[in-house]
Structures are given as C-alpha cells and as structure tokens.
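Hi there,

I know you've been waiting on this one. I reran it after we fixed the sequence typo, so this is the corrected version. Both the input and the resulting structure follow.
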Amino acid sequence: MLEDADLDEAVKAAAFGAFMNQGQICMSTERIIVVDAVADEFAARFQAKVATMIVGDPREGKTPLGAVVDTKTVAHVQSLIDDALAAGATQLNGGQAHGVLMPAHVIDGVTPEMKLFRDESFGPVVGIIHARDEAHAIQLANDTDYGLSASVFTRDTARGLKVARQIQSGICHINGPTVHDEAQMPFGGTKASGYGKFGGRAGIDSFTELRWITMETEPGHYPI
C-alpha cells in the first residue's frame, strides 16, 4: 500500500481479502505492507472496519464470519499470533476463540523475524507490516517463499503497474483484493505457491503437450 492509495478502498479490499471465508482461501491476504507515511492512518481505519466483522454461528446467517475448518486451525493461528506478540507486535483486533469460532485478528508491527510474516495461517488473522518507502515495500513483498496473489494500492495506475511487475507473484491486482479469480484468466503462483496455470488458454497449455504430427501424401524424395 503506497502513500497515495485510496485508503477507504484499501481498507475494504484488505478486510475482504483477509477474512472472506475466515481467511481459508488460497488467495487470502496474509500480509498487509503499508508505507510509513500512511501506516498509522490505515491501521486505525482497518481496525475500525474489522471491529464490525463479528464471528458467529453461520447457520444463523447474522454474522459475516463463521467457523474455521477445525480446532487445529485455531491452535495454528493462535500460535502465530502468540509468537508475533511475544516478539513485540501489537494486537489491534481479536479475542478468545470458542471452539471453531475464532474472531478476526489484526496484528500490527509484524516483522520478518516473526512466524506470522513467513508462515501461511489459512485462518482469520492478518499482519500489518510497515515499509519505509516503495522500494522497501517491494522488498518485503518478495521476502517470502510464496507467490500466488498480491495487490498494489495507489491512485497512480502507471506507478501501480510498475510496482506490480516487480512483485514475484503469479497474480497481482492493482487497487483490488488478492481474492479475485476469473475462469478465463491464467490462475497460478510462483515459488512455493506452485507452477503452471489453469484457466483460459494458459490452462490448456499447462495441462497438455504440444506435439507435431505429419502425414506424407506423395512419394518421398530423399538425398540418399
């Protein structure tokens, strides 16, 4: 997130990307990297937004957040949170889990030394990471074993495209959430997020072998 980002749109997209389906999507937003110039303002707005995202019994249809898949997920997510807090991060949102109902957690001040920076949570937690400037933000974005989906937020679309081209991910959305898929588009990651693509023509190319087959219809003439 760059200093000229539309923070209202960034907050909405980040909340959706991080907590849709309780963060249990391969494209879920795990890390929010924000340049220092707008980091505090973004964190305050994001905290207020996430505070409205209540967890509850999905069968009642009254809350935006439901259950995670099992209690192992709760334990895993909580271990990442505990590690970050012990190392100096700050919890902006969260609370006690009840069974498989775990509130949305926002952890500010996450750094590369913390497990939350590096490990996939696949649950309702997201870390806010502060970057000095654009170059540092790109460096932090690429400092990971994974590379499926990323986003860049800026009002300057040319700048957004320049940054997107430097991020090592199979997918990058400018001013949109990381959770975004279309059937006709090439979907796939880089690094530990896999190789190959599915969707559209790229999917055909990835799942098939290009071959050359000939058929002679006239008598052959050969040099020997």
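Quick highlight: Strands lie at 31-35, 90-93, 105-108, 125-131, 149-152, 171-174.

Best,
R. S.
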